[in-house]
Amino acid sequence: MLDADGSYGARGPQATDDGTRPKSDKAELDLNALYNRHRQTERRKARHIRIVQLLLLVLFIVAWQIAASRRWIDPLLFSTPEKVLAQGVKLYQEGTLIGHIFTTVWETSVGFISATVLGVFLAALLWFSPTLSRIIDPYIVVLNSMPKVALGPLFIVVFGSGALSIIMMAISVAVIITTLVVYGSFRETDKNWIKMARTFGASRCQLFRTIVFPASMPAILSALKVNVGLAWVGVIVGEFLVSKRGLGYLIIYGFQVFNFTLVMLGLVLISILATLMYQIVAHIEKLSMRFKM
Fold it and tell me: Where is region (Disordered) located (predicted)?
């Protein structure tokens, strides 16, 4: 209630005559408390999952060490975590490990970003031209089914025996999947939204910018997570074929000199770095969804 001077009384605007809060305020407080409890529960579940994941990793490393030490598995072929760690320390002290890691991460990042941008562009081009989409659809299917490793020698001839051919290999592995996933999402945009926008005279460009593209962001972000693994595959295969530097080169060199500890070191580093890149993309996805909400 308002006082004579036009200000609220001591109980405030939300107080009723008996000094209690209105039911709407109580319901809002209950919803907030319920939401906070839900967030706390989800955080506890996430912590438990992380702990279990860490325990599984530790268990795998211990089992690997024990199995190799007791010769349940061939220590020459599978090495041991102790030898792998020692090999990594040796390369780091020699000053070569960081260079190999940087080379592979740089090539993967460039290939990953390029494949994503090119895939979204091609998907948009197909959406803008349904006729073009029907014409090249069988060719996209053929390109998707083609083994990309077979293109490696061609890339080496065309782009040279350098980083460019490796990046092109990564792009060739990831771009078709990105195009198909994103274009499928463009086509599945809610038709009612498009019809409503057209009733207001929206052009096709405006439809894409204001409805189709924003509605497809979840699919694009999901394609990013898929592209991380595909880009790593393309780069490692490219380094197998042509590189003189990088984690793929370490693996193939280890096979050539029968240093399987070096091979396992390369595999372990690739696993760690690919996981980190995936977690970065997943975190970006969470941030974008939170911003959207």
Answer: 1-25
